[in-house]
Amino acid sequence: MQAQSSEDIRSTPSRSSSLRVQHTPSPLQSHRQSFTESLRGHPPSPRATRQPSLSQAQLQELLNHPPTTGSADPRFAGRDWQHIGVGELCDPADLRWVEFDSGIEDATNILINSGAHVLLVRHRKDERAAHATYDYRDLTQYLLFATGQLQPDEEHFPIFTSLAKKAQAGHTIPLRDAKSLGNKEPFITLPSTANLTHAIEVFGGGVHRIIIVEEGTDNVVGILSQLRLVKFLWENGRSFPILDRLYTQSIRDLGIGSQQTISVNGDMALKEALKLMNHEGLTSLAVVDNQCNVVGNISNVDTKLLTKSSSAPLLDNTCIHFISVILSTRGMNDGKDSFPVFHINPYSTLAHTVAKLVATKAHR
User: Fold this and answer.
1) Average per-residue pLDDT in the chain?
2) Would you say residue 11 has pLDDT above 50?
3) Residue 191 has pLDDT above 70, yes or no
4) Which of 8, 120, 263, 326 has the lowest tally of Cβ within 10 angstroms?
């Protein structure tokens, strides 16, 4: 939806936007017309003619010596971090809402333009209870269905057929129907009085975010993500001596990090990489060269670059080409070059690792 990473479907003559479900006449029909025939090269990267915002030496210095912790919040001084309520880390101003009857295109535009990583889905505009979420993982999955890269199972095929007919007729596809396809992110709630220990147990089960509600009600007061929790513990580390002592130890000594990672070669077609991400339930995927050196990263957030019909050829192009598009787009939007990979080694301290995660807002 760290990272950030669509394509569109053919629409009726009266609508030029994307996110239209491709018509599938039969569940037995697996072949679809390729975009390759109309494939055109993407404009060259502006990095070729733009001077870097930082010299390589300056950039390396930033990576090797991330910013130190900021000033701790005095509200948490002297408290046991395990007993801090999850509601104390949330901000209601971060909440973004859509309704089940909202169109998939409208919801996607809100997701992209608001800068939020997730939208809360409710039945009516006057309620504060959320019943589902819509994020970049949902967008990726919908785009794969819409372009014929994924086929629904037998149970969901009637729904898919109905959506295809709506798309062919130029009708709005409600978010309710779009979310009925494929796998869904677990919808987990905790009362605002629940402590951080409980939240960490939930995150340990593979959940990426928790919806925080008022005690005794379904009214949402905030969203707690893994990154927000990590940032909180980093910025307030000196308030929690037991955690502060861990920051000086190495990743290797703490036994942190996965030895088994899933990656794809840069020559793989983007559509195959997105299908792999969806199948494995991943939010991002490392891209490597033929020597297994990491050259970039593709995440669900980057699929926002695929939501226009003109971006359709990118699905048939390679992952390494898509990474160049990602970096070029960030450069044009942010006015500076973007570093494709952030890394550590087994001897990096926990402090160095967490500081880099927080500074780059990366998830891995």
Assistant:
1) 80
2) no
3) yes
4) 263
Q: Is the pLDDT of residue 242 over 70?
A: yes
Cβ pair 283, 5 in contact under 8 A: no
Q: 116 burial class (0-12, 13-18, 19+ CB within 10 angstroms)?
A: middle
According to the model, what pLDDT value does residue 33 have? 40
**Which residue bears the tokens 């502060």?**
244
Q: For residue 143, what are its two tokens?
A: 């785009």
- What residue type is 333 in one-letter code? N
Euclidean distance between the first and final Cα of the chain, in Å? 14
Integer Cα distance of 221 and 91 in angstroms: 7
Three-class secondary structure assignment of the chain: CCCCCCCCCCCCCCCCCCCCCCCCCCCCCCCCCCCHHHCCCCCCCHHHCCCCCCCHHHHHHHHHCCCCCCCCCHHHCCCCHHHCEHHHHCCHHHCCEEECCCEHHHHHHHHHHHCCCEEEEECCCCCCECCEEEEHHHHHHHHHHHCCCCCCCCCCHHHHHHHHHHHHCCCCCEHHHHCCCCCCCCCCEEECCCEHHHHHHHHCCCCCEEEEECCCCCEEEEEEEHHHHHHHHHHCHHHCHHHHCHHHCEHHHHCCCCCCCCEEECCCEHHHHHHHHHHHCCCEEEEECCCCCEEEEEEHHHHHHHCCHHHHHHHHCEHHHHHHHHHHHHHHHHCCCCCCCCCCCCCCEHHHHHHHHHHHCCCC
pLDDT: which is higher, 244 or 28: 244
| Cβ atoms of 235 and 70 closer than 8 Å | yes
> Which residues does 274 contact at the CB level (< 8 Å), separation at least 6?
140, 143, 144, 149, 298, 303, 315
CA distance 151 to 168: 18
